Amino acid sequence: MDYLSEFITIALVHLVAVASPGPDFAIVVRYSxxxxxxxxxxxxxxxxxxxxxxVAYSLIGLSVVxxxxxxxxxxxxxxxxxxxxxxxxxxxxxxxxxxxxxxxTSGQTAAISxxxxxxxxxxxxxxxxxxxxxxxSLFTAIIDIETPFAVKAMYGVYLAVATGVWFCFLSYxxxxxxxxxxxxxxxxxxxxxxxxxxxxLAIRLVTL
Length: 208
Hints:
This is LysE family translocator. By secondary structure, this protein is mainly α. It is built from 10 helices and no strands.
């Protein structure tokens, strides 16, 4: 029962965190609008795998090392910011000519491969230093030090799966016919907006 209480706390904290707009949200929305449901879901699965990376180094204590080593944390922050700017560049260049790849459930050919979408999701989450801070606080302030390693690992698997499911749901929601119709031929403006969001997130990473 102690573990159940701990798990419920973790689940609630994660729910708030995953629902908050951030790089993961921006990239999933961007890929949903530009490439459709299938590619966005691959991206969502990649985000979930990124969570496993944070869980892995948290379980062996590396999150504390990363946080307490200024140059290492800064390096990760700048690397993450550079990657977000790379993604933003592609989004900001979106225009009416991209409308053929707008969200659809009719099986259109996407402009990027599922593998690239999966890797993009993984890197977006895996390089996010804010996720490092989240898991640092999770494994030091919420999860008891006496909690068995196997139980902690199960928590991690849940967090990865829950994150992937959440963003898959978001991908599905954005690619429904009603939403796709609402976006219509002006979907590239939302793509550009996500580009601006990614730029803002990159700047925030290196200025905070």
